[in-house]
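Sequence in, structure out.
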Amino acid sequence: MISTLPDNIALTVGDKTPDVVAKALTEEDNSLADNLALLGRHYKIKIEFTEPVVVYIQGKWVSAVEGDRTIRTRRLHKEVTEHIFNGFFNQGTLCYKKKMNGRYGYPVTFLDKIKKWELVLDNKAVNKFNDYDDFLRRFDLQFITEAEVKKLWNGTSAQHGGQYRPSDFRQMGKQGKKVMQRFLNTFTHIDNPDTTRYHVTKDSTNYTEYYRTHHHSGRDISISHNAIVPYVWYSSEYAGCGNGSYGLVATKNTWIHLEDD
């Protein structure tokens, strides 16, 4: 009988067991589908099947010359006996993700054909900070206090459930850097912000610079600071939508990814 927990889950247990792993271990009544959805929000999943199954993939366009014609095709599915999935989610139906941080996927039709499964764990020697000082060097304290950096160091990621990694830091894109340039025309320093040009309401004192994309596949970027909080907020949202990726500014060119919505 297939285990409801991944074969290598013990490798994730230690001094800082990810919250999502602890939850899977304590919720003993969870089914295989429950734990695929729970752990698949934060980890890629490797599955071995009892027989070949067809899975859909993020196909790439391929050109092939046939005679005097060039034919472009896009392979969207393949037959496998073992496959690494980008993750899983359950919104009434268990689905596997098209992309790791994506919001769309395909229904799972192979649950009864799973032979064994395991979490795809990062190469810790590469994707891990050596110590707190190594982590702290990723931040410019113009944008965040060291006390907040320590909170991040001692906390866990809402995305993958573990301690923050080098891969959680993202480069700002072209538009993000332009927003930052405008933001720095007003923002001074997190310890002593000049709020004379901030927007003042009854409940808060805020300053925000943003970019709104004109393309359906672009991203809306905003950088903002509330005068009473010790960090600067960064968001990259889907065009015209209140959903996207959110985090904190680390430097003039980078931000740390906290969560997706």
